[in-house]
UniProtKB/TrEMBL annotation, chain A:
GO terms for cellular component: plasma membrane; proton-transporting ATP synthase complex. InterPro entries: ATP_synth_F0_asu, ATP_synth_F0_asu_bact/mt, F0_ATP_A_sf. The gene is atpB. Key component of the proton channel; it plays a direct role in the translocation of protons across the membrane. Belongs to the ATPase A chain family. One of its GO terms (molecular function) is proton-transporting ATP synthase activity, rotational mechanism. This is ATP synthase subunit a. It comes from Pseudotamlana haliotis. It is a multi-pass membrane protein. Its main location: membrane.
Automatic annotation (TrEMBL), chain B:
InterPro entries: ATP_synth_B-like_membr_sf (IPR028987), ATP_synth_b/b'su_bac/chlpt (IPR002146), ATP_synth_F0_bsu_bac (IPR005864), ATP_synthase_B_chain (IPR050059). It comes from Pseudotamlana haliotis. F-type ATPases have 2 components, F(1) - the catalytic core - and F(0) - the membrane proton channel. F(1) has five subunits: alpha(3), beta(3), gamma(1), delta(1), epsilon(1). F(0) has three main subunits: a(1), b(2) and c(10-14). The alpha and beta chains form an alternating ring which encloses part of the gamma chain. F(1) is attached to F(0) by a central stalk formed by the gamma and epsilon chains, while a peripheral stalk is formed by the delta and b chains. F-type ATPases have 2 components, F(1) - the catalytic core - and F(0) - the membrane proton channel. F(1) has five subunits: alpha(3), beta(3), gamma(1), delta(1), epsilon(1). F(0) has four main subunits: a(1), b(2) and c(10-14). The alpha and beta chains form an alternating ring which encloses part of the gamma chain. F(1) is attached to F(0) by a central stalk formed by the gamma and epsilon chains, while a peripheral stalk is formed by the delta and b chains. One of its GO terms (molecular function) is proton-transporting ATP synthase activity, rotational mechanism. The gene is atpF. This is ATP synthase subunit b. The keyword Hydrolase does not apply.
Amino acid sequence: MLVKQTTKIIAILVFLMTSVSAFAISGVPDDQHQEGGGDKVDTPEEIKAYISHHLKDSHDFHLYTNHETGTHVGFPLPVIVWTSEGLKTFMSSEFHHDDNGQVIVNKDGVQLTKIHSKIYELAPGADAVVFDDHHHAENAHKVLDFSITKSVFGMLLTGILMLLGFVALAKGYKKGAIPTGFSRVLEPLVIYVRDEIARPNIGEKKYKKFMSFLLTVFFFIWILNLLGLTPLGFNVTGQIAVTTCLAIFTVVIYLFSGTKDFWGHTLWMPGVPYILRPILAVIELIGFVVIKPFSLLVRLFANITAGHFVVMTLIALMITMKEAFGPAVSTGMSLVLSLFIMVIEILVAFLQAFIFTMLSSLFIGMAVEEHDHH
Amino acid sequence: MDQLLNDFSPGLFFMQAILLLILIVLMKKFAWKPILEALQTREDGIKDALDAAQNAKLELENLQADNEKLLQEARMERETLLKDARDIKAKMIEEAKDEAETQANKMIEQAQVAIESEKKSAMVELKKQVADLSLEIAEKVVRTELSSKDKQLELVETMLAEKSLN
């Protein structure tokens, strides 16, 4: 058992190492590197740009850049875009790490370029991007981007990790009622979600139907939050599209499982004057359809984005404070502060997963509640 | 807000929706369902075992209570038996006493009656004896008295005198 696990871990490590080093070897010296102009990220503006770049999704898995040789370490990810000429796929390495619309990829007559982590299609006939005063592209428009971006890659990784872990737990029960090894860690978490989140909020009778969603979402968010704290630099749950999707899942589930009582209370609130009922119905509807999911998606997005921002800013302190305090003090300060925030972030990673699942089950609980008839 | 809308990627949203849906389905089939079922079975098993233990304990307590009750009953029965016996004993003694007394009284009475009748018969006998004796004596006396003529006359005279005196 132990041997098997050790081999598994080694296999993963080897996979990560080789993929990184393979790309490092094949890494092309990048002549067109912009903004920093090929030098280190060491001015406040560059740090700000670096952080905002990190907070966005990206089309390649970038670990770090050696600015002296101009070598990027990481690996490219597939780009899948829906253009005016149909679906186009290629590897992100074709952009050569350009993120400013300088490199134009021609795919069967479609001119594609990448500006601030978004892929644009140039207007027919254009061969360079023209920017206006606000640095918006004038002669290009965004395309539907189904690429395996870093976030999608992170989600796939999370999904695989979850499947590995929990299928092992599920199989463990065939051998005996008490799980062994790592499953012993996972089991209390599953029980925690069931007994502390789903059961009290949804109710003993109906919670079972929603367990798959709640458990999946809880572990999905938690693992992604934790992945975001690793040096791999994922920021999946800090992508507003991801949190929106999660929130919409919750909304769809609770709206579709709403009982007659729920709709009765929402649309025609008993016990209040008739003249107020339509007004209350509008308020309740907006609450359930817009405000609740919005609070869900913004809470998760803002917490994780802010966390990444703060951690990166604190790490950058060792550069920004070097002038004032000298390298030793600024590095020490940065280390202590970022360690402190990092510990809090580990807590936040769990807390946000918990809150999202908790509120989801609370809303589902509201929708499936059977009221006593007054 | 503008920044947020600009950052929103429909493609990523779509990918996320598909992936999450697939993940939920896969996890449900291969992980959550068996896990939750196994947990439920285990918990039911534990609950049943606990209930059984509780029942056994209750049964034992009931048994003990029954034993206690039986013991109590036996004790009470002994108590009543002893009391009854004591009562009977006292009653018997009392009865015997009464019986003896009446018997004694009766015997005394009988004895007295017997004594009385004996006394009477004795008296009668005595009287008879005395009468016989007197008669004999009187005969003897008369015989001697009447042996001579004088004496006979004297006697007649005396007797006559006595008669007249009367």
